[in-house]
Amino acid sequence: MGQVAEFIAPLRPPETVMRLARLGSLHQSRLSFMRILTRHMSRQNWHFEKRQFQIDDTGVGHAILTAHGPERSYSLVAFAHDLPDEMRSDRVIATAWDATFTLFDGIPSEDDIQRLSQNIPLQEAGRVTETELTVSRANRSVRLWGQVIEALAEGKQPDIASIQDVGYLMRTTAVYGSGKLGAADREVIAGRPEFSAPFQAEMLTVYLIRWFVIELVQHLANARAAAANRSAATLDPEIARALGVGNSTGLGMAPFLLNHPQLLNNWITAREHAIQAVRNIRRPSEAEQAQFKNLLLRNATIVQTWRSAHPIQQEKLAALTADIAKVSAHLSRMDWAADYPWNGLFEWSARTLSLEGQEWLASTMLEPYGHVIDGYAECMSDDSTHRGIDGAMTVGQLRSMLQDTYAWASALDWTENANIARAWYVSEEKLEPRLGERFEEPIADYEQPLAPGRDIAALAADCAECPSTMPIAEFLLAHPQHRYAAQRVQVVQRAPYAEIRDNTISSDVLPIDMLRCKLSFFGATKFDPRSDRWVRICMFGNAPLPYELTSQNADFWVYPQDVGATA
Amino acid sequence: MTHSLNEVEALAKKAARGAGLSWGEADEAGKAVRWLCGWGCDGVGILARWLGSSERELDNAPLSVSDPVWRAPSGRLDPFQCGAMLSDFAHRLPEQRRIELAGLSFPLLIFPFVARSAQHIRQPVSVSWGAVSMVSDGHGVTLSDDAGLLADSCDIAVVSLDCAMGAPAATVTRAHPAADDLAVLEVFAHRTYAPATEESRRLGAG
Fold first, then answer.
1. pLDDT, tens only, A418-469
2. CA dist., res. A490 & res. A494, Å (int)
3. What is the pLDDT of residues A336-348, one digit of tens each?
4. In B, residues 102-121, which contact A (CB 8 Å cutoff)?
5. Chain B interface test: which of A128, A186, A262, A429 (most B C-beta within 10 Å)
6. In three state form, how does the secondary structure of A338-392 look?
């Protein structure tokens, strides 16, 4: 008898994964940055302290909320403002906000608070120093804010349906880290275990903002009740937990995936390896099967409460809802005793479900396998040093790479208007990235290098006739305009999931696909596009509040338990 | 008031682009400035003076990279173009062992590319002009504190493999650019921003 070859599930190829439509359909998973944070903090027994809360009855003042890790502490310094309704805007061009924040590296002194009070409320018009890790700001949900305070002040709990409908009391409109506005560069904190995974400082900031918002709303309800000689109700912890921090994201985030190809590669690689590892499990245990089924149901609940007014998302939600029904039916027919059932399920999904459904199922499949895949979080950052062009590579080698990775780009006709209809640029007005219409606006001269498809196709065309043995150093002497493209091709050679295989300046490109991809890695849920280039999401919805964080609730909080269900 | 290295890199890149370099060259200029600042050198200052130099248009690339002496027709070598060539052709350095750069403008700007070359060939490379002599092995550097470090030009800068690392310099995490120099960079960076029109606001903004 011959030996049966051991089955090994393949990695999905970049041509399949790195398409905007699929990246724009990604869902959070246990490798999302928010969940990496809460798991880490609970394992390391972080504790949290409300150090200062100097906010008056009108909601103006400042607060310090400190997170204490085993070796270091981090303080959210929050400034609450009295913002007139007509000044409230999510746009980058706003100049005032309901609340402004910084994450301080340690515990701030009175001098620090003084300095920060003169800068943080100004946001981009102010500056910070190396002791500040992030700078951010948030605005109230006009719909929910007053409603919650009024209910509590009258001694009642706010209406659950409204809470679930909106999902947050405040939404951030930017969270700046990595050296912006003078804050500490990533290099300063990258060696700390709590910050080894990506965006942990930003996620910690939002986690603390959420806590601040709940404290603030309770404070204002208490003040209002006291003024009427009453006692306010204390916000029910279950309702508090249901509230996340909203986030409004626009084009400012869109270039990120294109500007950080190595980093994007590392995120996708971790997720793809995780999927592969689960597909390679021969016989899941009963406990793993049960956990999967339980979380699948809870994950379906998120989809049921996911609202969007935008036709694009409504269509995707309809497909996802239909897919979930198909998944349930398929699971009831599945033979769990067969070898590699996850792989069977996965391959079935690739044939049967929409992109939303496929990626939703892929994320859910990872859930029972933290012990197998959580370590991949260590590989998701990019702390490599920049290498620069390798001029010794030959044109022949370059052409081979171009054929492997960019044939799709060379196949497009870059003289056709529809293929170059758009151009990315930065506006003078408030230095915000925009995506303009090349043939309708005078922006071509200001175009940012965010069209690698076009630029690399141009590189391919110009080196097509060069001798194979020519070092690209020589080619670049004659064609210095291709330096950016050549550099990028060499990065992608070492990082197969770095490049999006789609035209980023076409007449029908959807920037929200880029936003969704990055936000899914953050751990966001309930993506609610407001246009093709602006999306609202919810962060840390259902997460334990800092004072109740334990290893029991640090991981699966994103999947709501039935609110009000009997035991 | 100090600046993060990310900030100075981003500003330097935009300024170089605003001065007319291609995006690839501007990106390399940004990284070069960041690298210099990370070793405590005034990368912002030297870029500001290069950008603001009225003779910058005369700076050229060398006629030939095969010659042991690199010369430009104008007599002035462009530091970024030289730097790119040095680093791109690093694989020839072990054979050449020594290159003279005649009339190199703002020679400090070539040091990041010398370091890049050292990284490619995995051996130390030095660059010297006047009383300045510096070495990199691609990871660390040995710096000079001679005033000639910030020179606007030099007659000859020598790039050589016959060298060894000296006392290693310490990295720094903050840049300390002068306000005037930042202002120069901002002026050039500003050229990369598209003026807002009502049309563009309506069509393009998120």
1. 999 999 999 998 788 999 999 999 999 999 999 999 999 999 999 999 999 9
2. 7
3. 999 999 999 999 9
4. 116, 119-120
5. A429
6. CCCHHHHHHHHHHHHCCHHHHHHHHHHHHHHHHHHHHHHHHHCCCCCCCCCCCCC
